[in-house]
Amino acid sequence: MKKDELKTKTTHTDFLQREDRLFILWRLTRTPELDDYWQSYISEHPEEREAFDCAISVCDSITLGKREFPDTTQTYERILRSIAATGRRRASRVRFVRWAAAVAIALLLIIPTYYIYTGRERGEADRLTSLTGQILQGENIVLTIGDDKIALPDSADVRISDGRIYCNGRSLGMPGGSAGDNIARLSVPAGKRSFLTLPDLSKVWVNSGTEVEFPVAYAASSRDIQVDGEIYIDVARNSRKPFLVHTEKLDVLVHGTSFNVSAYRQESEVFVVLVHGKVQVSMRDHRTTYMRPNQRAALKDGDLTLEEVDVNDYTSWKDGYLIFNKASMAEVLAKVGKYYNIDFSDQNSYLSRRLITGKLFLTSDIDEILASISLLTSTTYTRNHNHVTFTEKRKETRP
């Protein structure tokens, strides 16, 4: 074989590194549309069969197998295990499999893949696409103690221990004088998240657009924090010292449990979703209710409702993704807009009729998610800074 021919011969890496990512997406989703696409492709390019089969083998060795809508989180964990397993394989295969797994991981992180289909009229095929999101550049996460303001990196991991403050393992000392006499405030802007470990070892996941106020050292009889926004909290158990989460419209009292609180000051609805344990929810008019696991208590316009829910739909954001289950496009855009600090213009009835199911990972490029929504809904979009407008595509008329 000539040297020039070697340069142009297709290899399995060409399939794995395709810019459109269709090969990786096909092996993850196995949809009929992509099956047809690749069957036609290999029929037209039989000389690439060997590389094609090799690429299939690589993908199938590090993914979850044939599922139409795979759990991408489990897929990612499976890939990580595949990388670890390479250390036990023969030396001749180690570099190859490790490289292949790394390619798949890179693509999952670049995409990152999630699957979304539209609810259409009965008999009409679901359409599938891959969407991604981007944490937009904006303000820093800020920790305020007394007169001191400290800018923190994205996805900051803040820990309070023995009166000292740490961020991502690095000590920030005790700014503002005596830490025990100060209230600290963690401010997380739109498009970012943070994590906080309180002095009692309670764990707090802080969502975008949220402020949490907390003491650097707790009082002797209680543990109190103030929230404007949304948190998920795993409260360290202490039966002698109750834990209180205060919001503008309600308080949540616990001793040790896990729950989600969404209490954005600018939103009319405040809700609590209980994952484990038992909580007491108290309103400003002294009404009180107790919650069981898998319940959602919502307060809106003075009315309190209690319902059974799938808690994952409300807590998945702490793991970096949103879940939609036959959600209206308005609901999808509202959540996307709130997270990325984007405003959407009023949508026409054509777009509002669409129903969406799937996962949206909260990373990557915002324009990719907008382009994917545009493709999915047969629309075009324009973005002027943080304002987005979708417009229905006009059907071309043949002469």
User: What is the β-strand count?
Assistant: 25
**Strand proportion:** 25-35%
Q: Categorize the overall geometry.
A: globular
The total count of helices amounts to 11
Low-confidence regions: 1-7, 62-138
Measured as a percent range, the helix fraction is 25-40%
Q: Could you tell me how far the N terminus lies from the C terminus, measured between alpha carbons in angstroms?
A: 51 Å
Total discrete domains: 3
Topology:
Blueprint: H1 3-8, H2 12-16, H3 22-29, H4 32-44, H5 49-61, H6 72-85, H7 91-110, E1 115-119, E2 128-130, E3 141-145, E4 148-152, E5 157-161, E6 164-167, E7 170-173, E8 183-188, E9 194-197, E10 203-206, E11 210-215, E12 223-234, E13 243-246, E14 250-254, E15 258-263, E16 269-276, E17 279-283, E18 288-291, E19 295-300, E20 303-308, H8 312-315, E21 321-328, H9 329-340, E22 343-344, H10 349-352, E23 355-361, H11 366-376, E24 379-384, E25 387-392
Parallel strand pairs: 5-9, 12-13, 22-25
Antiparallel strand pairs: 1-2, 1-23, 3-4, 3-8, 5-6, 6-7, 8-11, 9-10, 10-12, 11-12, 12-15, 13-14, 14-17, 15-16, 16-19, 17-18, 19-20, 21-23, 24-25
Helix pairs in contact: 6-7
